[in-house]
Design brief:
It is a single chain. By secondary structure, the protein is an alpha/beta fold. The chain has a single domain (about 5-239), classed as P-loop containing nucleotide triphosphate hydrolases (Rossmann fold). Helices cover about 35% and strands about 20% of the residues. The protein has helices spanning about 15-30, 45-50, 60-65, 100-110, 125-130, 145-160, 185-195, 205-215, 225-239; strands spanning about 5-10, 35-40, 75, 85, 115-120, 135-140, 165-175, 200-205. An eight-stranded mixed sheet has the order 3-4-2-5-1-6-7-8, sandwiched between helices. Helix 6 links the parallel strand 6 and strand 7. Helix 1 (about 15-30) packs across helix 9 (about 225-239). The radius of gyration is 17 Å and the shape is globular. The model has no long low-confidence stretch (mean pLDDT about 95). It binds adenosine-5'-triphosphate and magnesium ion. Adenosine-5'-triphosphate (ATP) binds near residues 13, 45, 205 and 208.
């Protein structure tokens, strides 16, 4: 089944790009063909998290404006031959992508790829609406902070309003050692505050931060303990 999945959050910096890179790598490891689209126009980072920053020549706006062909903007991962990136433009003024253009592009990509995963900009503004327009499914990323959970719930409602009912939540940066002290919400409390099911929890871990900086999705890092965790989350999302 071909699917467009948008990875979104209300609050910024919660781990959308980290999760997009790792979900893409995990699905490609599982044998699916995957393209990751960065829609953080003017503020791209997925290329860095994938270690592809020196290989971006054309971006999505070059495709929609007709400057290049679709294939020319697809960057193939050197580790996983079924993983591709389509980058966002660095120059904000260059980009004027309409929801119709993005939907048409995703439909074209569906002919080749099993999964098209869109890394959305945070918030509920125009950039997010654009990113969510072609989505069949949404992954809402949040963190164990009351403000982030409220934002996640707002986002969930907006997605409902857009007709995207298939949603799952990933709670990132959890710190189990702080549970039970009344200082951070625990998973049960988070689950009670949200309308969509939680697909998984990912711990706060500096290795995740380091791997993003090194351009290596942590699921590809040797001997990492988190691969199984992310694999289970991905299975639950695509189920
Ligand atoms: N589980 C984690 N443990 C530790 N650091 C993490 C974890 N997840 C993400 N990070 C780090 O948190 C920072 C923000 O992550 P990321 O860029 O993926 O967030 P984002 O939601 O895409 O942000 P933005 O809203 O700016 O696009 C990065 O430095 C990243 O390496
Ligand atoms: Mg991001």
């Amino acid at each position: 089944m071909k699917e467009v999945i948008v990875v979104a959050s209300g609050k910024g910096g919660v781990g959308k790009t980290f999760f997009t890179a790792n979900m893409g790598a995990k699905l490609a490891q599982k044998g699916f063909s995957v393209v990751l689209i960065d829609l953080n126009i003017g503020l791209r980072s997925l290329d860095i998290y994938l270690g592809m920053e020196n290989r971006v020549v054309y971006d999505i706006s070059d495709v929609t404006s007709g400057t290049c062909r679709l294939k020319q903007a697809l960057i193939k991962d050197r580790r996983l031959n079924k993983l591709y990136l389509m980058s966002a433009p660095q120059n904000k003024s260059k980009a004027d992508i309409s929801p119709e253009q993005l939907t048409e592009l995703c439909n074209e990509l569906k002919e080749t790829f099993d999964y098209i995963i869109i890394d959305a900009p945070s918030g509920l503004e125009k950039g997010f609406t654009l990113a969510a327009t072609p989505a069949d499914k949404a992954v809402i990323i949040t963190v164990p902070e009351y403000a982030a959970i409220r934002d996640a719930d707002m986002l969930d409602q907006v997605l409902d309003g857009m007709g995207i009912e298939n949603k799952s939540v990933v709670v990132n940066k959890i710190m189990p050692e702080l549970y039970g002290k009344g200082i951070v919400p625990d998973p049960l409390e988070i689950s009670d505050s949200l309308r969509s099911p939680i697909s998984g929890l990912i711990p706060y871990d500096l290795n995740i931060n380091i791997s993003a900086n090194m351009g290596v999705p942590i699921v590809l890092a040797k001997g990492n303990y988190i691969e199984k965790n992310i694999s289970n989350i991905v299975e639950s999302i695509i189920r």
